[in-house]
Amino acid sequence: MKQGLALVSLLVRDYDEALAFYVGVLGFRLVQDRPVPEQGKRWVVVSPPGDSGAQLLLAQASTSAQHDRIGDQTGGRVGFFLYTDDFQRDYAAYRAKGVVFVREPVEQPYGTVAVFQDLYGNLWDLLEPRRQAP
Predict the structure, then answer these.
(1) Are residues 36 and 66 in the same domain?
(2) Nearest Cα to 83, choosing from 33, 17, 131, 32?
(3) What is the Cα–Cα distance from 124 to 117, expressed in whole angstroms?
(4) How do beta strands 7-12 and 55-60 pair?
(5) Do 66 and 105 fall into the same domain?
(6) What is the side-by-side order of every strand in the sheet holding 55-60?
(7) In angstroms, rounded to a whole number, what is the distance separating the alpha carbons of residues 87 and 113?
(8) pLDDT at 66
(9) DSSP 8-state secondary structure symbol assigned to residue 38
(10) Do residues 120 and 100 make contact, with C-beta atoms less than 8 angstroms apart?
């Protein structure tokens, strides 16, 4: 059996402001943006550049319970892990675009990592995994 994680749903306040951040600031690519008229919403999927793993389904909150969870879907823990092949490049680019880092870069046994907030306050690791010796 072969399985893979395809989509992770992320609650957002507004599709277009979320796209402005994820595509315009983080450089994700827009995979899909199509109306779902029977449900009064859109199907909006973004993906990090060059990524072949899981993608984000940007889900606009539609109930008060969903609105209450925007930005805190993981109870204050890092909930998203963005791997990169060049930490310094992406860290500098994100800082230049105003991304807020709540934990500065550190070297860990598994790689270089810093924690940033998305536009709603969700916490993300920006992580360049350490290359394993052959």
Answers:
(1) yes
(2) 131
(3) 6
(4) parallel
(5) no
(6) 7-12, 55-60, 41-47, 29-36
(7) 8
(8) 96
(9) G
(10) no
Q: Which DSSP string do the residues of 73-111 spell out, in sequence order? A: TTTTSEEEEEE-S-HHHHHHHHHHTTPPEEEEEEEETTE
pLDDT tens digit sequence for 89-116 = 999 999 999 999 999 999 999 999 999 9
The contacts of residue 33 (CB under 8 Å, 6+ apart) are 15, 19, 42, 43, 44, 45
Alpha carbons within 13 angstroms on the beta-carbon side of residue 89 total 6
Number of domains in the chain: 2
Phi first, then psi: give them for residue 92, nearest 5 degrees: -65, -45
Query: pTM of the full predicted structure?
Result: 0.92
Q: Which residue has the tokens 């991304």?
A: 99
